[in-house]
From TrEMBL:
<feature type="domain" description="Response regulatory">
    <location>
        <begin position="1"/>
        <end position="116"/>
    </location>
</feature>
<dbReference type="InterPro" id="IPR036388">
    <property type="entry name" value="WH-like_DNA-bd_sf"/>
</dbReference>
<dbReference type="InterPro" id="IPR001867">
    <property type="entry name" value="OmpR/PhoB-type_DNA-bd"/>
</dbReference>
<dbReference type="GO" id="GO:0032993">
    <property type="term" value="C:protein-DNA complex"/>
</dbReference>
<dbReference type="GO" id="GO:0000976">
    <property type="term" value="F:transcription cis-regulatory region binding"/>
</dbReference>
<dbReference type="InterPro" id="IPR001789">
    <property type="entry name" value="Sig_transdc_resp-reg_receiver"/>
</dbReference>
<dbReference type="InterPro" id="IPR016032">
    <property type="entry name" value="Sig_transdc_resp-reg_C-effctor"/>
</dbReference>
<dbReference type="GO" id="GO:0005829">
    <property type="term" value="C:cytosol"/>
</dbReference>
<dbReference type="GO" id="GO:0006355">
    <property type="term" value="P:regulation of DNA-templated transcription"/>
</dbReference>
<protein>
    <submittedName>
        <fullName>Response regulator transcription factor</fullName>
    </submittedName>
</protein>
<keyword id="KW-0238">DNA-binding</keyword>
<dbReference type="GO" id="GO:0000156">
    <property type="term" value="F:phosphorelay response regulator activity"/>
</dbReference>
<feature type="domain" description="OmpR/PhoB-type">
    <location>
        <begin position="124"/>
        <end position="223"/>
    </location>
</feature>
<dbReference type="InterPro" id="IPR011006">
    <property type="entry name" value="CheY-like_superfamily"/>
</dbReference>
<keyword id="KW-0804">Transcription</keyword>
<dbReference type="Pfam" id="PF00486">
    <property type="entry name" value="Trans_reg_C"/>
</dbReference>
<keyword id="KW-0805">Transcription regulation</keyword>
Amino acid sequence: MIIVVDDRELVTSGYQSLFGQEGVSSAGFGVAEFRDWVETAPETDISAVEAFLLGDFPERSSFTRLVRNRSAAPMIALAETRALNSTLDLFAAGIDDVVAKPVHVKEILARVGAIRRRDAGSERGRTVVDEICVFSDGRDPEVGGKAMMLPRRERRILEYLISNRGRRVSKQQLFSAIYGVFDENVEENVIESHISKLRKKLKMRLGYDPVSSMRYLGYGIGV
């Protein structure tokens, strides 16, 4: 899930729509609203955030410490104009990347993937766990050495599990990451259906189920 912060509703709703077209869940906040949310949101909601996209507002530089107290997800700042001093100030404040508008959401997602790979030490453009390889550019994963076409939701679940390899994630975390924390039009149990279909396909390809599950603890790959 991508969190978009800007006091202009046109900006937040616009990016939410564009991320949605790419199959990525997102949520938009005004500045004051975001401050309240990030300080009080449950850990399950915070852990579902893949990146923070910060618009151009005066408090932006001071928000980095606020965010880092709760999350290690990449923070990307949107710049209305190219100005070296302001860009350097943002980096000094702890922003991970600065992009000038207009920018396509595919580029934003690619930059998020690059930051996450850098921090995790993953190979450029892909993450491999045993016989599963997922890509940061929207391509279908490779399973058992061959590409596997998956519906958008199942692919996103696999990517999320791989990005959290080595630890378990709950059904609620998966739901928040795939559908967003504020989507009330979808039942949380739909995640179980998506995971069940994904596990069957992985087992047919690999001969075993790489996704482990434990009651109350959640799902994981490589745990």
